[in-house]
Amino acid sequence: MRILHYCLVDVFTDHPFGGNQLAVVLDGDGLTTETMQALAREFNLSETTFILPAQQPEHAYRVRIFTPGAEMPMAGHPTVGTTFILARKGLIPLLEPETSLTLEEKVGPIPVRLSLHNGQVQRIQMQQPLPTFGSHFADRDAIARLLSLNASALHPTLPLEVVSCGVPFLFVPIKNLDALRRIRFRLDVWDQTLRDFEASQVFVFTQETELPTSTVHCRMFAPALGVMEDPATGAAHGPLGSYLVRHQLVQPGVEFVSEQGFELGRPSLLSVKIDQQDGQIVGVYVGGQCCFIGEGTIELPEDL
User: Fold this and answer.
1) What residues make up the domain containing 55?
2) Which candidate, 118, 116, 52, places its Cα nearest to that of 82?
3) Which runs of consecutive H residues, i.e. helices, occur in 76-182?
4) Bridge partners (DSSP) listed for residue 50
5) Residues with catalytic annotation?
6) Measured at the alpha carbon of residue 22, what is the angle toward residues 47 and 210, in degrees to the nearest 5?
7) 123 and 248, same domain (yes or no)
8) Are strands 98-105 and 290-300 parallel, antiparallel or unpaired?
């Protein structure tokens, strides 16, 4: 039998049972794609990562990321959580007050920065690819039906817009927090309207928040990836910040806090900063804290 070692970590939280759960398989080298996907289904978390040797000597490690339904080109909470586990296990050198490294993901190199104090990781921040802005979704009534809301609950002037920093999301601005809490996602409407759209992941947000220190309150639905609702979606927050800067809802260069997962009982806080120069976005940064939960082993037949 082959023995695999894994860790569990809650990401974008500073305490257990908050944030977004992640399984990190430390010894992924030699596993087939099919086995990785099967293990992601076995863990049945929103994502599972596999650590492999880097393909370029200047990079730290290669990371493959799987939801229960598909491999991801990049993702936020898996990048942050995997980096946290690499640090905890002594697999990367740590220098105070900051340590920088680069991980290889399917989308390309992802720079990561760890902030440390007294040898402990305080925060991890990833740099995401620059945004691309896609289509506007014109049928607001269809999106309202998808969310089990009246069309009047959608923000009256902001667009339903696709934005990607490696993974595309359809951003849907909601008028207030009460409406966002009342969302009930309808798979039948999604199947008819968004399954084959350029972004099948739906990210809803409002500028009303639970916490006075937050700027936006969010939810994310990704049935095509096997994730009905995600407690914290790092890959969506680079695009979210880009959307907010583009539509002048936040100032470029100013870090803000986004809250997600409250409706699932897993409150998550993500920090986002978008740098802009001469009207163009030049830097996308998403980060947060992590909490170690536990570790264990998996036994697999040698032929898997």
Assistant:
1) 2-128+289-300
2) 52
3) 76-88, 140-146, 177-181
4) 25, 64
5) 47
6) 95
7) no
8) unpaired
